[in-house]
Specification:
Layout lengths: L9 H13 L19 H13 L2 E9 L16 H14 L3 E5 L8 H6 L2 H10 L3 E3 L9 H10 L3 E3 L3 E3 L12 E6 L2 E9 L3 H4 L6 E3 L2 H14 L4 E7 L2 H10 L4 E4 L6 E5 L2 E5 L6 E10 L5 E10 L8 H6 L4 H7 L2 E5 L3 E2 L2 H4 L5 H14 L3 E5 L8 E2 L2 E4 H7 L6 E7 H11 L13 E4 L1 E6 L8 E6 L2 E2 L5 E7 H4 L12 E4 L7 H10 L12 E5 L2 E2 L7 E2 L5 E2 L11
Parallel strand pairs: 1-2, 2-3, 3-4, 7-9, 9-10, 10-12, 17-25, 22-27
Antiparallel strand pairs: 1-13, 5-8, 6-7, 11-12, 13-14, 15-19, 16-18, 17-21, 20-25, 20-26, 22-23, 23-24, 27-28, 29-30
Helix pairs in contact: 3-5, 8-9, 13-17
Bound molecules: zinc ion.
């Protein structure tokens, strides 16, 4: 997941802040090591509690963030930024020298900067900040295993990923240690890291990297860590919280620090607290551990978070270390145009219905290629954010179109055009956000998600006339689609009017379209009508949630549109 420019919902932020404020109190007895002695002997228990109270404690601090894709602030400067995070780290260190900084995965990509540097800029940023440990996240493999190995070599901190294995060596990927034991303030803190197995398919770890069962891994490692003297066991994870909860039942773990959902959360499973921050270092998580100096036992924990806002000054040492990226950052913030309305670049919108941005992009392609119509895949609109009214920058162009491609024009028959539209909506009942979803210019169409794939288009007009299946149309699209991408095989072999090598890049066409007027204000105009059993589809809030989080919509006369 990545929402690099989407501000967090104010309600979610408030709720999270309240939860954290309310939950600030330690979770007594939450850790297996601090559970009280046998309850059947109250007198003895009371005595031992009194004893424990007398025992002095040492304080350890764990700072943590997760899912951080850019080192500069997000939400138009309102939150995040690793320069500010570096200042906070130094402030905490000054108060509590027994501090470790942890990152719970996902940082190499996706981002505009990573399209140039493949995540190296983030490694430089974490090195400058003084990160201690990180767990591999699914996005760490977005540029393939070789780039990740290079990034591991560049890191001055330790990557963990005990269940991420390399077929070639039979050992962990990148030879990361299965766990580490770090002595902090005289206490031996053991940390192991695990990553969700679905990374195998959602990212690009390659054929040699595989993922083993996280529960089995915890069962194997935790006793080893204890044997080697670990007094505190911390799981640094990049899993769905449901998987974290299972993990907590597999072995006695004192604390799980996780990530991946981009939602701030606290949970407890089998007595083990699980905590995650949202994303993009919008806030810095802090866990304070109180450990008995004689018994070496974890007595209690406190949880809070430090907001990362403009009130926190940027660490000048961090800024200095990142100076080599100044030119790129300046270039990215150059204005290229202006919008008077929010531009919908959300993935789910662009892959399910007409949006003002997709229609604007399709119009721009059609004009640039001098074609009668345009058809583009909704998946070609990236950034997954809503661009708010105001200046549009080079960064916005690259966020929307991160991958280079060119705008082409091909000759297609009306029959092929219809076939392409059918293909485009053929997953619209089966998936929430199919990348192939057709966004158009010069075309109006209606489709019914309750009809079978291949027979969903119920109406098509081209520039106000009914589609003529026998006629030849000039169609603008991107070179990915004309080459048969996203399953549009019907375009393969079509005669080019503007070929990929002659066409201008999609990024240049979009930039020029942004610059074509003093300001733009694109609107949706009813080019695409989405029907459900003949009627206009209701808003998604009426959807039923499937247990895997996917929406399930029912059609008239059927229990579900889901197969
Ligand atoms: Zn993730």
């Amino acid at each position: 997941m990545s929402f690099p420019f989407r501000p967090p919902s104010p309600l979610a932020t408030l709720l999270a802040a309240l939860l954290l404020a309310a939950g600030c109190a330690s979770l007594p007895g939450s850790a297996p090591t601090s559970s009280p002695a046998a309850e059947s002997r109250p007198a003895e228990n009371a005595a031992s509690e009194a004893e424990q109270e007398e025992e002095p404690t040492v304080t350890l601090t764990l700072l943590h963030v997760n899912d951080v894709y850019q080192f500069t602030p997000v939400d138009f400067g309102a939150r995040g930024g690793l320069g500010r995070l570096s200042t906070l780290r130094k402030q905490v260190l000054a108060e509590s020298p027994n501090t470790l900084f942890l990152m719970a995965g996902d940082t190499l990509g996706p981002s505009v900067e990573s399209t140039f540097h493949k995540g190296k800029q983030m490694i430089d940023a974490w090195n400058a900040l003084g990160l201690d440990f990180a767990v591999l996240g699914n996005h760490e493999f977005d540029f393939g295993p070789d780039v990740m190995l290079e990034r591991i070599r560049e890191s001055r901190f330790t990557w963990l990923g005990a269940n991420v294995m390399d077929k070639k060596t039979g050992r962990t990927f990148g030879e990361t240690p299965p766990f580490v034991i770090r002595e902090v303030g005289g206490v031996k803190v053991g940390i192991f890291g695990v990553l969700l197995g679905k990374t195998k398919y959602s990212s690009k770890p390659g054929p040699d990297v595989y993922f083993t069962d996280t529960c089995a891994k915890a069962r194997e490692l935790v006793p080893q860590m204890r044997k080697q003297g670990a007094q505190i066991i911390i799981g640094l994870t990049h899993l769905f919280v449901a998987e974290d909860k299972v993990l907590a039942r597999c072995a006695p773990i004192d604390l799980i620090i996780g990530g991946h959902e981009h939602v701030m959360m606290q949970a407890v499973s089998n007595g083990t607290p699980i905590i995650k921050m949202s994303s993009e270092a919008r806030e810095l998580g802090r866990v304070t551990l109180h450990v008995g100096t004689q018994s070496g036992k974890l007595k209690s924990m406190d949880f809070d978070m430090l907001p990362v806002t403009p009130e926190v000054p940027e660490d000048p040492a961090f800024a200095k270390a990142m100076r080599e990226y100044d030119a790129m950052m300046a270039e990215l913030s150059q204005p290229v145009g202006r919008t008077r309305v929010p531009l919908d670049a959300l993935e789910e919108s662009n892959r399910s219905h007409e949006t003002n941005l997709a229609s604007f992009v399709a119009d721009a392609y059609r004009q640039a290629a001098g074609a009668e119509v345009a058809l583009i895949n909704g998946g070609s609109i990236r950034s997954d954010s809503v661009l708010r009214p105001g200046p549009l920058t080079r960064r916005d162009v690259l966020a929307i179109h991160p991958y280079p491609g060119s705008v082409v024009s091909i000759e297609v028959s009306g029959a092929v055009l219809r076939q392409a539209l059918e293909h485009g909506v053929s997953r619209s009942a089966e998936e929430t956000d199919p990348g192939r979803f057709p966004q158009v210019s010069g075309i109006q169409y209606a489709f019914d998600v309750c009809r079978p794939p291949g027979d969903r288009i119920v109406r098509v007009t081209v520039n106000g006339e009914p589609l003529d299946v026998k006629r030849t149309y000039s169609l603008a699209t991107n070179s990915y689609m004309s080459g048969g991408g996203d399953g549009y095989s019907m375009f393969k072999g079509a005669k080019y009017r503007v070929s990929p090598d002659k066409g201008r890049t999609t990024q240049d066409v979009l930039r020029d379209a942004f610059a074509s007027a003093e300001s733009i204000a694109p609107a949706t105009t009813g080019r695409i009508e989405r029907l459900r059993g003949g009627a206009r589809e209701l808003a998604r809030k009426d959807d039923k949630e499937h247990e895997d989080g996917k929406h399930v919509l029912s059609c008239p006369g059927t229990a579900s549109a889901h197969p």
